[in-house]
Specification:
54% helix, three-stranded antiparallel sheet, Arc Repressor Mutant, subunit A, 182 residues
């Protein structure tokens, strides 16, 4: 994605939640999504159309009838290259906004895992992995490492997923810190 307007459209909290729900749970209607997210169907319908205008969602072919429109996510994930957006008007601001939203979402995911982990059965409790790796790398090295790790995850998503199993969330972050927070 190279258009800051598309990233700005995605930065809206309700739009992000709608897209996430469609990605996690599959196709749905504005009414059902509104019920799930505590929003009116008019609001969810408007924001779904905005997401569709930027290519994030689409109507499910052959499923919409009359006033009931079924929507699905067009992609399983959204990626952008920060450097492609920084020189665009408002690019830096929208990248920062998205970074803050993603960090907040990761905090919510980790907090949900912390709250649920005691209820996991033994097989899941021993399979869960929380990692904290530290490496001395240049910006080029970080880009290469991230590309390689993303490639591994893409291969698993495209060929190793197991039908009927729960959705497993993988958080992959790479960033420098001046000092490790103790």
């Amino acid at each position: 994605m190279r258009d800051p307007r598309a990233l700005r459209a995605l930065a809206h909290p309700l739009r992000g939640a709608l897209l996430a729900a469609l990605r996690m749970d599959g196709p749905s209607t504005a009414t059902r999504l509104g019920e799930r997210l505590g929003e009116s169907s008019g609001s969810t319908s408007y924001h779904l159309r905005q997401l569709a205008a930027f290519g994030f969602v689409e109507e499910v072919p052959g499923e919409s009838t009359g006033r009931e429109r079924w929507w699905q996510a067009r992609h399983r994930s959204t990626r952008w290259e920060t450097e492609d957006l920084l020189d665009e008007p408002s690019g830096r601001e929208v990248v920062e906004e998205m970074n803050h939203r993603l960090l907040a979402q990761q905090r919510r995911m980790l907090a949900a895992h912390a709250a649920e982990r005691e209820d996991l059965d033994g097989a899941w409790r021993t399979a869960v992995s929380l990692n904290d790796w530290s490496l001395h790398l240049s910006p080029t090295g970080v880009r290469e490492l991230t590309a390689e790790l993303n490639g591994v995850l893409a291969r698993w998503r495209n060929g190793r997923e197991e039908a009927g199993q729960p959705l497993v969330h993988v958080l992959l972050d790479a960033f420098p810190l001046k000092e490790y927070p103790l």
